[in-house]
Amino acid sequence: MKLASVATAIALLSPALLTAQVDQRLAERVDGPTLEVMTVILRQAARVGLPSEPLIDKALEGSSRGAPHDMIVAAVRRLFDGMNTVRSVLGPGAGASELNAGALALRAGADVEAIEGLKLARPGGDLTTPFGVLVDLVAIGVPAEDAGVIVYGLTEKGHTDVQLLELQRQVVNDVINGYPPMIAASVRSGIPTAAPPPFGDVVAEGVSAAPQP
Amino acid sequence: MNESGHNGLVERVAHELKRSIKIDPSFDESVMAEVRRHGKPAMWVRVIAWWRRPQQLSLSPLSMAASAAVLILAVAVSPVRFGNPDGVEPIAEDPAARVIRFELDAPRASSVTLSGDFNDWDLEATPMTRTSSGEWVTTVKLVPGRYEYTFVVDGDKWVPDPAAPPSLFDDFGGTSSTITVPEV
Questions:
Q1: What is the rounded CA–CA span in Å between residue A152 and residue A133?
Q2: In this structure, are residues A100 and A80 in contact, taking their beta carbons and an 8 Å threshold?
Q3: In this structure, what are the phi and psi dihedrals at residue B24, rounded to the nearest 5 degrees?
Q4: Is the dihedral of CA B169, B171, B174, B177 positive or negative?
Q5: How far apart are CA B66 and CA A17, in angstroms?
Q6: Which end of chain A is more exposed for a tag (fewer CB within 10 A), N or C?
């Protein structure tokens, strides 16, 4: 009975403690209305078991950039929803960095099936880097679906984080040198993408002249 | 033994227990004299004995809840903070942390700082040092993960790292760069 009472008291008061701890960091950097909304969001995060740090970081980034209240709240809520979706796929053991990167991957156009595929491709392993490489490939112009296929294929073959990042670096260099992103990514990875090369043989010849991985 | 025999035994035992015992009147005095001779144990002995002896604390559930509330509030209002005051030091203490060098070629800048999610996007937490060639450099220890950051030139110009992938999304009207520190 006493144990139950203590557990109940702590459960009721833990969100208050969490809020009090983040208040000090956020209170110095965000305005009152933003702080109020952040308090609610962080309570929700604590309740569903999501990490608070990425959410706080997002709010602090907005504050440092002088973003208005609405923009900060929208960005934080978007991140919350993304992390929640990724966590539902990866499970409660997923780390903050992994959830953050997974949320970005979803936003970049990867679907839930792609997240599930990566989880199966690297069972029990951290997926922060695969998610990050997927996002970065999309950022340089590789279609999200193709980026997902490439990263899944390499991860499934057992490529390490270092190898994935090296591939990304090579593709970026190829793109800087004028090669189409999708072709560069497909050739460098050795994984054919879903869509046929849009530029025909001329581009393929150009890519074949690039340094091989 | 039958019931009557059992009752007889009980009666004899009861009778024996009730029998008054004559004790020499000097017995009490001799016992007390012995006690006085040993005296009280020293205070420190009694304190140690108290700490070593199991103690029982009784609290009502309401008192326990109130105690928990007071404890949590005390921690909440305490100036002492556990964990991550500025987002950098705990990372530096992690054995998995790696030293990452950031550099920006900005010979005309009068100041450059590094701001990112690894230092709570603090504009002043990580100043960069100018080299003789006009390059601004700093190092940060980061654990494996993916980070976003930007350079802040002369206090108000946000400049992405030209040597790093840009962040795909721009939530706040500026471009950041990304760095992924891999698991090794």
A1: 11
A2: no
A3: -60, 130
A4: negative
A5: 15
A6: N
pLDDT band at A77 (very low <50, low <70, confident <90, very high): very high
Query: Which candidate, A100, A175, A106, A113, places its Cα nearest to that of A142?
Result: A175
In a domain, B66, yes or no: no
Q: Which residues of chain B make contact with A74, given a CB cutoff of 8 A?
A: 171
Tens digit of each residue's pLDDT (9 = 90 or more) over A20-65: 555 688 999 999 999 999 999 999 999 999 999 999 999 999 999 9
Q: Quick one: tokens of A211?
A: 């340094």
Selected residue of B67, B168, B169, B184 to mutate for chain A interface (largest A Cβ count, 10 A)? B168
A165 token code pair: 């990042």
How many angstroms separate the CA atoms of A150 and A168, rounded? 11
Q: What is the ipTM of this complex?
A: 0.77
Examine residue B160 and state whether it is found in any structural domain, yes or no: yes
Q: Is residue B115 part of a domain?
A: yes
Question: B110 near B154, Cβ under 8 Å?
Answer: yes
Question: Between chains, do A10 and B145 touch, taking CB under 8 Å as contact?
Answer: no
Q: Based on the structure, what is the number of domains in chain B?
A: 2
Strand partners, B147: B179
